[in-house]
Each structure stands twice: as C-alpha cells, then as structure tokens.
C-alpha cells in the first residue's frame, strides 16, 4: 500500500456526542475565563494568553494523563496519544511549509474580507474587548516597553509553543483517532470542531475551517503527530509576529 494508506487498528471509538463535548468543553472553559477577566477590566488578549496557560494546558493535558492513569495505572500518555509514525525530517518540512503558507494566507484573506463584518453582524453582543480580535485594534495608551516585552515573551512561550503542543496531543493525537470510524469524514469533523472550539473568535470559523482542512487531512493520512505540531507551532508564531508588526505600525 502507498504511504498514508496502510491499514491501522483504531483505538476505542468515542460516540459523536462525547467527541463533540470533548472538543468544545476546553474552549468553553477558556472563553468563560476570558469573559470574567474582561469584565474585570483585563484586556481580552491578555486574558486569552493567561487562560491558555492556566485553563487549556491543565485541562487538556490533565485529561490525557488521567486517561493514561486509567489505562495503565501510571500517569503516562502511552496508549492515549496516537499518530506515532515518523516521517523523515525532509518530508516533514516538505508537507509543513505549504500547509503553513496556506493557513496564513487564508486567515489573512478572511481577516481582511470577512471577520469584522461577521463579528459586527452576528456577534455584536460579544464584549467589545473580545470583538477587537476581529480587527487587531485596541484602545487606550500603548503600555511601557518592558511590559510589552514581557507580554510578547509570554505569548511566544505559551501560545507559540506550549499551547500548540498540548492541543495537538489532545485534538489530533487523542480525539482524531477516536472518530476514525468516519474514515475521510474524521479529519473534516475534527477540523470543524477544532475551529468551533475557538469560541473567542467565532467570526473566523469560515476561513479557519478552510485553512484547517488540508492540514488535518495530511496529518491523518501521514499519521505523524510531529508534522501537526510543526505546522501548529509555525502558524502560531507567524501569527504572533504579524500581530507584533501591526502593533509596531500603530505604535
């Protein structure tokens, strides 16, 4: 059989309802955290960064470790996280680069053409500080340089590396194989639910789903979770750089 088509034994499958809950629940918890902090006057972008560290990582990694504990009696990811095949580094890069370019390009176009209109039309009831994610525009004075530097360092550590690794272990390594009975529908369902998980930016769903589909299809076929981590880390770091450029131009 050709690469990516080798038959694999599926792990225990989740019901559709359970899969939907497991995909969306961490995002709902993070969104609630962001809203609480926003009500207290904390900028939504800062609440999001903190929430990834104190909500998303503990919830998703904790769930995986708990499943490992129940399965093996040890706090481990063995038998819990799949897609363990290993592509050569050159092949990983050959797949990752176009997937990253596609993702960033689609989100840039979506942000320019759709996001603000969708946010203003369908999500005008969202707090203003959260809807600023649709434009990258904020209000108020520019913080001191050392504060900006600390926030950026924290952002690159958490949203650039730690968050993507944990999310890939959870969404692609654990949840995706457990809807594998749907065949080619599995990566489609995973892409849609992973996009909906981002409750703090629902206006991005049309573009984000389109951007995600080739990425998740490729990872599903090649069965290498490291490829998905490479794409996710690259996308998040490039996105943070774009936000930084916008910030510097406005500053």
Question: Can you describe what's shown?
Answer:
With 251 residues, this protein is mainly alpha-helical. It has one domain (16-250). The chain is built from eight helices and no strands. Helix 1 (16-39) runs antiparallel to helix 2. The longest helix is centred in the middle third of the chain and has 34 residues, at 89-122. It is globular, with a radius of gyration of 18 Å. The relative contact order is 0.17.
The unreliable regions are 1-6
Mean pLDDT: 88
Largest sheet: none
Instruction: Please trace the helix and strand order, writing H or E for each element.
Output: HHHHHHHH
Count of DSSP strands? 0
- Whole-angstrom Rg: 18 Å
Helix content: over 70%
Structural class given helices, strands, pairing? mainly alpha
What is the number of helical segments per DSSP (H or I, 4+ residues)?
A: 8
Distance between the termini: 56 Å
- The percentage of residues in β strands lies in under 5%
Tally of separate domains: 1
Shape from CA axes? Answer: globular
Topology of this structure?
Layout (H helix, E strand, L loop, with lengths): L15 H24 L4 H29 L16 H34 L5 H4 L13 H31 L9 H12 L8 H18 L2 H26 L1
Helix pairs in contact: 1-2, 1-6, 2-5, 3-7, 3-8, 5-8, 6-7
């Amino acid at each position: 059989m050709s690469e990516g088509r080798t038959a694999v034994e599926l792990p225990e499958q989740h019901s559709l309802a359970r899969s939907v809950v497991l995909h969306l629940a961490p995002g709902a918890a993070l969104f609630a955290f962001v809203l609480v902090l926003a009500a207290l006057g904390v900028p939504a972008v800062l609440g999001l960064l903190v929430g990834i560290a104190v909500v998303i990582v503990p919830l998703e990694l904790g769930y995986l470790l708990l499943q490992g504990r129940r399965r093996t009696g040890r706090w481990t990811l063995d038998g819990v996280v799949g897609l363990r095949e290993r592509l050569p580094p050159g092949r990983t890069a050959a797949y990752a680069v176009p997937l990253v370019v596609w993702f960033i390009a689609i989100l840039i176009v979506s942000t320019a053409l759709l996001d603000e209109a969708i946010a203003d039309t369908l999500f005008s009831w969202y707090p203003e500080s959260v809807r600023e994610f649709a434009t990258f525009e904020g209000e108020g004075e520019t913080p001191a340089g050392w504060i900006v530097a600390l926030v950026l360092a924290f952002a690159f550590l958490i949203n650039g590396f730690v968050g993507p690794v944990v999310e890939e272990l959870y969404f692609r390594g654990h949840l995706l194989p457990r809807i594998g009975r749907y065949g080619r529908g599995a990566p489609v369902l995973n892409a849609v639910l992973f996009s909906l998980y981002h409750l703090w930016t629902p206006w991005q769903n049309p573009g984000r789903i389109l951007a995600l589909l080739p990425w998740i299809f490729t990872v599903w076929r090649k069965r290498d979770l490291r490829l998905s981590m490479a794409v996710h880390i690259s996308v998040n770091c490039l996105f943070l750089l774009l936000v930084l450029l916008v910030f510097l131009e406005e500053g």
